[in-house]
Each structure stands twice: as structure tokens, then as C-alpha cells.
Fold this sequence. Notes:
The complex is a heterodimer. Chain A is mostly helical.
Amino acid sequence: MDRLLNVTTGLSVILLVMVLVSVRRAHIRVEYSVSWLLAAAAMLILSRAHLLLNAVRNLIGLPDSPLTLFLLAGGVFLIMFFRFSVIVSHLRDNNIALAQRVAILEYHLQNLRNHESQEV
Amino acid sequence: MIPPNTHDSLLVIVPALNEEAAIGGVVSEIHQHVPGVPVLVIDDCSADSTIAVARQAGAEVLPMPHHLGLGGCVQAGYKLAYELGFQYVIRVDGDGQHDASDIPRVYEKLKTTGCEMVIGSRFVADNGSRTGAVRALGIRFFRLVLRPVLGKEVHDPTSGFVGVNRRALDVFRQSFPLEYPEIEALVVLQRRRFRFEEVPCKMRPRTTGRSTITALRSLYYVLHVLLGVFVNVLKFDRRYHRAQRERGAGG
């Protein structure tokens, strides 16, 4: 059981470092890194604070602590994936609207140029 | 393109992706059957010479900066048509399957009935149009699903041969389904209490290129469209009931 919790601690630390390095290199924006950092920190704290994990386990009524931790982590990541799906959908909509606007403006610009060259 | 100055101005839009083999013929055929009507080819970032061939055939071209999919292309055409002040827009596919000789009939129906959308239908009368077995089954399925939603039968809900008037243009320029738009667009209009009609049209077998709906994508298509219909029904019903309640509260 302890080994499983240690593995979780290791994974949480790796995730924390990866997110911080990515933010520093501007691979992900700060606002999108917050939820990852919170999730990694929560996993790290729960995997180290046995009393806290046991309290959560009793509250949920599950038989053992690692299962509780993995269920919590799974739940948190599901919510995060959903959140990112919402963000991606918004970005896609905005991207399409922008692409359409660019195409229409280029069309008008081309027409103006043609009109000007005809006048000259 | 000269901005329209008549109350019944028509624009024909042709969304196209890698249709260099067919697009020239499609544009020429449209010019032949509705002379003087501008044709706008909306190019979805083709890798071939679709743009050059379309321009050579006498069409205006609206090239997309990157691939947007069918719905994104058609909506861009609707947006431009609305901005330029066109009263009617008829969409024809760029693969040459739609017969341009049917355009005047769709246009006439739009003008005389005043309805917001006219669908060129393969099945409203037996006109010799044939479709594959799987596709025919899908169309039957959607007919059954759409009948209670639309309140009337639609014979060819997947037809891409569609004419709309300016009221529908105003709706579609703001909101238009991006993937597989035909069926969802019908639901969007119906939920706004707009009307649609069907006119019999011929459809030729595809001679060049490939359909976007392959056998493998059929299941995804059905699920996607069903979900889209369901969401639109919920969205607009909620809006309608809220408006009714507010009207009731306002006395």
C-alpha cells in the first residue's frame, strides 16, 4: 500500500515539475496551468498525509486508501478534461469565426484593389 | 462582385474542396441556366487548382485561410452574401451532383412562397435519382426522426441543394452547424417558426472526387446529427417557453 502511495507521490512531483517547466518555457499559459498544479498538489498532499487520506476514505466509505486516492485523482482529471474540452470548443468557434472574417476582409480588399487598378 | 440592387437578388454559392475536375463544369452550368447571377465558390483550402479553375470559369472565389469544414465554408458564404445585401442564396455542391437546371425552380419557390428555406429534394417525386442502399436507409431513418420534430415530413433531409431567403441568412450568419449542417440547419429554422418547402430535383452520380461521408463515418454521422438535433430542440424549446412565460408575466 505504501509503495503505491510512494508511486503516486513520485508521479505528483513529476507532474508538478513538468507543469512548472512548461509554464516557464511558455508552452502552456499560466491560466491553464493552475488546474494542473492544483491537481498535482492535491495528489501530493493526499499521498503523504495518511491521516487526511484515511479521513477522506472513511467519509466516502471505501475499503482502502490507495483506491480512494486513485478515485479522487480520476475524478479530478475527468473534470479537468471536461474543462479543457469546453475551452477547446470555444477556441475552435472563435478560430472559425476569425478565419471567416479574414477570408471576407481579404475578398473585400481584393475587390478594392481590382477597382483601383481599373480606375488607374 | 457587384453589390445587388434589386429586391430579389440571387447569389449561388458553391462550397468546394479539391474539386478541380468538376468545379469548372459546375460554374459554367450555373451560368448557363441562371445567366447574370453571380456565382461564389467558397474554397476550403484545396490542395489542387480548384480556385484557378473556378475563376477561369467566371466565378468569384472566397478562399478560406485554413480548412474549416463544410459548415464553416457555407456559413462564410452566407455571411458575405448578407453583408453584400443579397436577398436569396442557393447552395449547390461543387462535385457536379446537383443539376443547375433545377436552380430556377428553387429560386421561384423561394420568391413565390415567401418561405425561409427551399430544399431541392430527390424523393419528393420519382425523378430517377438513385442513391446507395446505406445512404437511403439513413435518409429514411432521419425522415422518421425529423417528422415529429419538424411537424411535417421532409423527404430529403440530407440534401445539400438548398435555397434560403434573407431572414434565414440572418439566422445562419450568426449560428450555423459546422459539421454535417443540412439536418441541423432545418431544425434551427423550424424552431424559430420558419417555414421550408421542397421542390423535386435531380441528382447525378458523383463522377469525380470522393464523398465526405464514407462508410466508416456513417455511424459517427448518425450520432453527431442526432445529438445536434436533440440539442437544438432542447435549446430552442427552452428559449420559446421562457419567452412565453415572460410574455405571460408581462400581461
